[in-house]
Every structure is written in structure tokens, then in C-alpha cells.
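Late entry, zinc ion complex.
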Amino acid sequence: MWYTIQVSEIAMYFYDISDRVIKGGVTMAKCAICDKGVTVGIKLSHSHIRTKRTWHPNLQRVKAIVDGSPKRIMVCTRCLRSGKVQRAI
Ligand SMILES: [Zn+2]
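Prediction complete; structure with ligand written out below:
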């Protein structure tokens, strides 16, 4: 059986990497509303072998009203569910 533990220090380190990815113009896994991004942690086995792993937010490409005009943005499903996004039809 595998257990998972999220290590916060490693997660901070990963945010730095994703910032560099934005500057490079590559699409990244980040919510446009709440800035939720990729989290890094470890997979910890019973024999205590540590393997690095990542968690990605569930992002959806939606048409929303941003500053009065419709725009396609990447939003996490939690923001969609809680009604933080004003959808454009
Ligand atoms: Zn969000």
C-alpha cells in the first residue's frame, strides 16, 4: 500500500519553476481566479522509498466575462462550482 504526504517546502520550490514556465510562453496548470497551481509532494511506500510526484488542479477552459468583455480563461472546477466566474454565453 502506498501513502502520500505533501511537503510544503517542495511545493514552494515548484511554484518558482511554474513562474519560469509562464515567462517562456508555455501553457501552465494555473487557475486564473485563485492562482491554484501544481503541487509537488512525495509518494511514500511502506518500505519508506520516497518518489516525487505532482498534483495538477482540475482546470477547465471556459468563456467568462473579464473586465466587461468575454474571454476564454483557464479556471479550476472549485472556482466554477462556488460561482466565482461570471460565464459568458
Ligand atoms: Zn480557482
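Residues 31, 33-34, 36, 75-76, 78-79 surround zinc ion (CB under 6 Å). Will revisit in the morning.
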